[in-house]
Amino acid sequence: MSDFPTVTRTVVVNNPQGFHMRPAHLFAQKAQQFQSQIFVIKGDLRCDGRSIMELLTLAAPQGTELVIEAQGPDAQQAVEALAPIVENPEPEELAGEEESAE
Fold first, then answer.
1. How do strand 37-42 and strand 65-71 relate by DSSP bridges?
2. Order of strands, sheet of 6-12, starting from the edge strand that comes earlier in the sequence
3. How many C-beta atoms lie closer than 10 Å to residue 79's C-beta?
4. Rounded to whole angstroms, how far apart are CA atoms 52 and 26?
5. What span, in angstroms and rounded, lies between the C-alpha atoms of 82 and 85?
6. Range 6-97: architecture per CATH
7. Using an 8 Å Cβ cutoff, are 64 and 27 in contact?
């Protein structure tokens, strides 16, 4: 995958409960839909964006800055789709919108 550019985006956790189990689950589930490698970075900690358990190790309360990094053929689309899950104060609403669109 090294032939593809790396796309990054800095996001802020806006959920009052932080980046907890539900948004981590939504993030990992969405990340699995892309071919690109996806990572979430907090300081020196770098986690696989497809792993709920790794995402939970970030322990990211509201206001935390995270970097979403993707590398692969659909990296830009992946970052654009994943950022709202972190930035939206109620990411569960995003999941509801997707389910009603299907």
1. antiparallel
2. 6-12, 65-71, 37-42, 45-48
3. 21
4. 9
5. 6
6. 2-Layer Sandwich (3.30)
7. no
25 is catalytic: no
What are the CA-CA distances from residue 88 to residues 3, 38, 47, 72, 93 (Å)? 32, 19, 20, 25, 9
Outline where DSSP puts E strands in 31-76. Answer: 37-42, 45-48, 65-71
Listed by start position, the domains of the chain span: 6-97
**CA 63, 64, 65, 70 torsion: positive or negative?**
negative
Tens digit of pLDDT for each residue in 33-88? 999 999 999 999 999 999 999 999 999 999 999 999 999 999 999 999 999 999 98
Query: Per the residue annotation, which of 4, 9, 18, 20 is the catalytic one?
Result: 20
3-state secondary structure of 28: helix
Which amino acid, residue 39?
F
Place of tokens 């790794």: 54
CA distance 26 to 94: 9
Q: What is the pTM of this model?
A: 0.87
